[in-house]
Design a protein that fits this description.
Layout: E1 14-15, E2 19-20, H1 22-33, E3 54-58, E4 64-67, E5 83-86, E6 92-99, H2 107-113, E7 116-124, E8 131-140, E9 146-150, E10 155-157, E11 167-173, E12 182-191, E13 202-211
Antiparallel strand pairs: 1-2, 3-6, 4-5, 5-13, 6-12, 7-11, 7-13, 8-9, 8-10, 8-12
Domain FBA: 29-212
GO cellular component, one term: cytoplasm
Organism: Onychostoma macrolepis
Length: 212
């Protein structure tokens, strides 16, 4: 049996006379079994209106929630997700900052394991108006300084020439170094025609999970 399976060999201390430091092996194994399951984003789909979200920008007619598919909208492929957030004619950005220690993660274990951080988000446009979508996810240290960041190019959707149905964007953070304490998840956008109302990008299904 390969006892190194699932072990971060970069942090194992090895004595030529004794082999693997079993204390670190035990710590890594314990971390895997004490995995904090589930999505770390609270209210990812708008079921609780805008609860748990910090509204960084709230332009136009401001953020709101609606039921899928919504006016001039698109169906979603997961029955468990029934609502979405919608943006307006000026920039709408919302954010959650996840405190990993408050969520029950041990700082020493985070530094040793540097667990994989998985990010997902879903966005779509309307059938009658174009929109812009943006996303920024940052790994932060104890001072909330950026360690690593995922910030794809803004996506512009035009229903006259683009498929504006629900699309998933995803990213995986690995090997980011010790010190991870917070994760910032920020997304939003607006419409491209400056129409009064909620004709901008729609978002739902936001997810941040950690594999241990």
């Amino acid at each position: 049996m390969n006892i190194l399976k699932g072990v971060n060999t970069r942090v194992l201390l090895q004595d030529p006379g004794k082999g693997i430091d079993l204390r670190l092996l035990e710590k890594k194994t314990s971390l895997r079994f004490n995995k904090m399951p589930g999505n770390l984003i609270k209210n990812p789909n708008g079921d609780e209106d805008l609860e748990h979200w910090e509204l960084i920008e709230n332009g136009g007619d401001q953020w709101r929630t609606d039921d899928i598919p919504g006016d001039c909208g698109h169906t979603f492929n997961e029955e468990s997700i029934t609502k979405f957030f919608c943006t307006s004619f000026e920039q709408c950005i919302k954010r959650q900052v996840i405190d990993l220690l408050a969520e029950g993660y041990d700082p020493e274990n985070l530094d040793i394991a540097q667990p994989t951080v998985n990010v997902e988000d879903w966005y779509c446009g309307r059938t009658d108006c174009g929109c812009v979508y943006n996303l920024t996810v940052s790994l932060l240290d104890e001072n909330q300084e950026v360690m690593e960041e995922f910030k794809p190019d803004d996506v512009t959707l035009d229903p006259d020439c683009d498929d504006c149905s629900w699309k998933k964007v995803s990213h995986t953070f690995t090997d980011y170094g010790p010190g991870l304490r917070f994760i910032s998840f920020e997304h939003g956008g607006q419409d491209t025609k400056y129409w009064q109302g909620w004709f901008g990008v729609r978002v739902t299904g936001s997810s941040v999970t950690i594999d241990l």
